[in-house]
Amino acid sequence: MTRRYYVTTPIYYVNGAPHIGHAYTSVAADVIARFKRLAGFDVFFLTGTDEHGQKVEQAAQAAGMEPIAFADRVAADFRDMYDKMAISYDDFIRTTEPRHAEGASALWKRLEENGHIYLGAYEGWYALRDECFYGEDELVTGPDGTKVAPTGAAVEWVKEPSYFFRLSAFGDRLLELYENQPGFIEPASRRNEVASFVRQGLRDLSISRTSFNWGIPVPGDPKHVMYVWVDALANYLSAVGFPDETAARWDFWPANLHLVGKDILRFHAIYWPALLMGAGLELPRRVFSHGWWTIEGQKMSKSLGNVVDPRDLVETFGLDPVRFFLMREMPFGGDSDLSRRAIISRMNVELANDLGNLAQRTLSQIARNCGGVLPAQGTHTAEDTALLAPATLLPQIMHEQIDRQALTDALEEVWKVIRACNAYIDHQAPWKLKKTDSARMNDVLRVLADALRIIATVLQPYMPDSMDRMLTQLGVEAGERDFAALDTPLPEGRVLPAPQGIFPRFVEPEAT
Ligand code: ME8
């Protein structure tokens, strides 16, 4: 039986252009999706755009456009960013698509049928930037002395008729979920925050608005549109065909992993499971919330004018160095800073020196001293085995890390092997063996080529383009690049193409 894996990113608001924060979550999901595919899983990787709600409506107005035309433009820009970042999504859902309206409406109707929705009137605080209702007790004093949301977003007093979801009835079941399935929310520190929020008692959730109409009409009462978060969360169901449980993709439900930023954990770890419980649907296996990027030490914001478009970074540094930097610099789950200096340092030390040089040294010696063909596998010495044994374990060790979203640790695991290869090549000095023991030289170079093949195979999810080139230079054919293929050694005598540097050092333009 094929093993299935369903991973999602948040669907991003189309009120602004794609930025590095969006690229980050999507690259992380992409690494996971690519890794699972290489491990033989049938993967469904979903992403998309969140196009309804007052915030998007206002952004469209400010641009002098109809909301749908505005959303079309920004959604296309997100796809362009994805193409430039090599995001291998299987589906891109837009909440303005009919298939999504159908899924979201069906979810609503199930909740209504099950008695979890009632009509009332909402009176309270709303933060448009967060598209979130806040209780009085959650507000804090902002820099100018006014009350603001805990996120710093401005709040307004809203009073209007509204449908409510009986969220208050789900507190105990949610706490049970966090208790019985600790992996449901990761990292653990965030799980504790969510659990203590729930323990304080949940209020029913206002799930419709009447003061604007850019949204999915409430079934049976089209004066109301659905609250944008109910609409948005439903995307994870509508993309797999809900409510048609005979749809081919329905087998992917429940999702294995919702990857989100810490800003939207509450919606995914409280509202979403409660809505699913209310609708009698299975719960996702896991919600992982990652940390926050600052830019050169500052919060990224439109007002500071420091919003980073990932495409600009790719233009300057190249795609794979940027993907590598994002995955390497931020301990997955923690916060981190993006700076030009840090990118260049990672590029020059880890990519150019550690990995690039290793490949170049190995391949150029094979080209020069082995007639450009892959040498035979010799008898392994203790040192050869000491190098190859941990390399061989990489797919398995990393798989366990990837399943925990320990994406940075998994890279560190590969770098341990890369550093060991560098120590090995220095110690074995194959260039000296040419005259004294050419048979051993061949064996050493073959050991290095085998280690590099494993390294390049397991790094494909992080740096697909460069690792594609490295595998080609190592003589690994297209059908030999998944983890299962690593069990079969490459035949000796395979002709290798002329080696070419894969990770050039980055030199500041003014220094050239
Ligand atoms: O919240 N660092 O969309 P959104 C790291 N539409 N990640 C960041 C980041 C930063 N500085 N800034 C943004 C929404 N992100 C809703 C989601 S899902 C059913 C609906 C990433 O456009 C991070 O993943 O505001 C965060 O959760 C997401 O962008 C917010 O995107």
UniProtKB/TrEMBL annotation:
Keyword Cytoplasm: yes
Matching Pfam families: Anticodon_3, tRNA-synt_1g
EC number: 6.1.1.10
Major location (coarse): cytoplasm
Chain location of the short sequence motif 'KMSKS' region per the record: 299-303
All residue ranges annotated as the Methionyl/Leucyl tRNA synthetase domain in the record: 5-363
GO-annotated biological processes: methionyl-tRNA aminoacylation
Domain Methionyl-tRNA synthetase anticodon-binding: 374-506
First-tier enzyme category under EC: ligase
MF (Gene Ontology): ATP binding; methionine-tRNA ligase activity
Gene Ontology CC entries for this record: cytoplasm
Motif ('HIGH' region): 12-22
Keywords (A to Z) from UniProt: Aminoacyl-tRNA synthetase, ATP-binding, Cytoplasm, Ligase, Nucleotide-binding, Protein biosynthesis
Cell compartments where the protein resides: Cytoplasm
Source organism superkingdom: Bacteria
Reaction catalyzed: tRNA(Met) + L-methionine + ATP = L-methionyl-tRNA(Met) + AMP + diphosphate
Family: Belongs to the class-I aminoacyl-tRNA synthetase family. MetG type 2B subfamily.
Assembly mode: Monomer.
HAMAP family, per the entry: Met_tRNA_synth_type2
NCBIfam families: metG, PRK12267.1
Purpose: Is required not only for elongation of protein synthesis but also for the initiation of all mRNA translation through initiator tRNA(fMet) aminoacylation.
Protein name: Methionine--tRNA ligase
Annotated source species: Komagataeibacter melaceti
Gene that this polypeptide is encoded by: metG
